[in-house]
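Write out this protein's structure.
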Amino acid sequence: MLYALKILSPLPHSVLYGISRVFYFFIYRIVGYRKKVVREHLSFAFPDKKENELRELEKKFYWHFSDLFVEVLMLQRIPREEISNRVRFTEQATKLLNELPQKYQYIIAVLGHCGNWEWVNAGYAAQFSTPLLGVYHPLTNKKFDAWMQNLRSRFGTIPVPMNGLLRYIRQHPDGKFIIGLIADQSAPPEHSYCLPFLNKKTTVFKGPEKLAKKFNAPVVYFPVIKISKGMYQVDAILITEKPINENEQSITEKHVKALENNIRQQPECWLWTHKRWKHQCN
């Protein structure tokens, strides 16, 4: 499988997007990859939508999901100039990403699985000078995990496994970093808050809030919108600049709300196949 991906990656973008149409037909029409999960999630997230509206949204999601597949392949060859053109940071996002590192040693950058988070990682590294620590959960397949980390580090991002983040920071006491966290993963109850999210309570990692308070680091949520095929816009919302003044859970509530607004703005571009609500909470 990995060999096939490496063979496909040098193909022209037009050919790869053509392959994404085939991939869509296969995973949606033939296999029905996690279709039951997607339908369940969409139904409680958008209770006011009619059945035909939910089906249309479902199809749009699988079209986008198929594009994500080939866009990951593009990362192996895409030039710095092109990824910079395809991932455009708004004036507000650019302002915060340039100004905050001058005032703080660490900035907590929170994202969701919206748009193309892999391209946002690459687009940031291609355009800004403060190193990005891309925090990730290692994949079970070691060879595929190594391939993904190689893609993520092409333009200077430093991939760091979640359980090695604090160790890496201790090893670089003078370093200035943007700490990038995907904050919509399903969290085990013992390490989470229980919060409403898209009309249903679920567990949310405490990690961004704990890191922010530990280092007194500002927290920024970066909404991502798909402008067109292969074109993304990244905005910025300052959640807090003084986390030690925030009440417990308030930082988490704010970035979860920002994520929810991001999803509602463009619901077809969030990762609905992810079993986000698998942990029950009250």
